[in-house]
Design goal:
single chain; 409 residues; Rossmann fold; 5-stranded parallel beta sheet; 12 helices; 17 strands; 29% helix; 20% strand; elongated; binds S-adenosylmethionine
Length: 409
């Protein structure tokens, strides 16, 4: 049977009947792709794993709770045979052969009329790998290499259809280059122009090929900075010139990141914009220092606040009195310079002076450091320990739980 290689094809299963025999781990692995392809999936099995059962309960598949019976493959376009009963598998396979239904068999690939390739997806393309004979480990390894390469940009496959002017607003995560999303990394690898902030995964910029133009949009507090308007104009100009533009931001673009201002400016200029969320420092930096922002029985809420203006500054939009009354965790970004006044305001409005607090500087990077204090001592501690931005400040009982300095992967 298998002297000839398999003929690869993409089945368009939307609305078409697909029969799955057996509700075990093979079905559990294969069903999501069949559901994603829009197939009308009928599972025949007396039992199923909890995940498969949940797909049936959710109406994603139709479950016939019984063993295989002759005639089950009638009207099917395609079948997956994966029961634990050898005789049933053989009988179903013979039925498929007789009725010209392509069948995959989990127990005996050599006897099957179809094989499932190792598949992966990246950027609107499905990569499917088939061996000349069934060798799932090898095909999976080749699939992983290709998909991983497309995702991290080591395999570059340019789009040949002309692309409309567009910009990707990419959240780069808190700093560790491993903490950008797969999509963000892929877009970065495809970029012609990258406009990057000071915060975020700067190391990724070193990996970009020399033809990529990297523009520093550093907004250094109280120092030299490139005005937001200049950044917007640069984005628009490069996109209009037909360049693939990535605006790389620290954390998430919409958490104190001015992401929406840039998206609005692009929309006004008629340029489409893809927003790629990022891991915000507000959660990940405390986590990297061993502090959970919520913890059962300790904090049922966390509030993220900007501390870039002091509580007594008329420009402040933060209700510090209300925050002082909350029991949960308070996470302050951009607050190192004003933490003394912030602590004073919280104490004045009722938070206990001994409330624990931690400052986590340059979180997730090689120079990460955590400094602990209380609301009463933080002003002195910041000076004594020379804590500098960027730092995330966590205030609340969660600072005292967990394992300090939890090792990160
Ligand atoms: C302009 S805000 C941008 C926040 C970003 N969009 C996010 O979601 O993380 C900058 C502030 O984020 C915090 N921050 C960002 N990255 C950090 C890091 N790696 N370590 C400590 N704080 C960080 C600091 O409070 C810093 O002043």
């Amino acid at each position: 049977m298998a002297e000839h290689p398999a003929y690869p094809v993409g089945l368009r299963l939307s609305g078409r009947r697909v029969v799955v025999l057996g509700g075990g781990s093979v079905a559990q692995r294969r069903l999501p792709a069949l559901i994603a392809a829009g197939a009308d999936v009928h599972l025949v099995s007396p039992s199923a794993t909890p995940s498969v059962e949940a797909m049936a309960d959710g109406g994603e598949i139709t479950w016939h709770r019984r063993p295989y019976a002759a005639g089950d493959l009638t009207d099917a376009w395609y079948a997956l045979i994966a029961t634990s009963d050898d005789a049933a598998n053989t009988a179903a396979s013979a039925e498929g052969e007789a009725h010209r239904v392509w069948c995959v068999r989990s127990d005996d690939a050599a006897a099957a009329t179809a094989w499932t390739p190792a598949t992966g997806h990246s950027d609107g393309v499905t990569v499917a790998v088939l061996g000349d004979s069934p060798d799932p480990r090898r095909t999976a390894a080749i699939r992983d290499t290709v998909v991983e390469g497309l995702r991290d940009g080591t395999l570059v496959a340019p789009h040949h259809r002309p692309q409309a002017a567009s910009v990707a607003l990419v959240g780069g995560g808190p700093g560790d280059p491993d903490l950008i999303t797969v999509r963000g990394r892929r877009l970065l690898a495809q970029a012609d122009v990258v406009i990057a902030d000071r915060l975020g995964p700067r190391d990724l910029l070193n990996e970009l090929p020399p033809h990529v133009e990297v523009i520093d949009a550093a907004k250094i507090p109280y120092g030299r900075f490139m005005a937001q308007e200049a950044i917007n104009n640069a984005l628009i100009e490069h996109a209009k010139a037909g360049k693939a533009v990535v605006r790389l931001k620290g954390g998430d673009p919409f958490v104190f990141g001015r992401g929406m201002e840039e998206a609005q400016a692009l929309a006004e200029a008629g340029i489409s914009c893809t927003v790629v969320p990022g891991i915000s420092s507000s959660i990940s930096v405390p986590g990297a220092a061993g502090i959970p922002v919520t913890h059962r029985g300790v904090a049922h809420e966390f509030t993220v606040v900007s501390g870039h203006v002091a509580p007594d500054d008329e420009r402040s939009l933060v209700d510090w009195a209300a925050l002082a009354r909350l029991r949960g965790t308070l996470v302050v970004l951009m607050g190192v310079d004003k933490i003394g006044k912030i602590a004073e305001a919280l104490i004045a409005h009722g938070r206990a002076p001994e409330t624990p607090l931690a400052l986590v500087q340059e979180g997730t990077t090689a120079t990460q450091r955590r400094v602990d204090a209380t609301l009463a001592t933080v002003a002195e501690t910041v000076v004594a320990e020379d804590v500098r931005p960027p730092a995330v400040i966590v205030i609340g009982e969660v600072v005292g739980v967990g394992v300090p300095h939890t090792p990160q992967a």
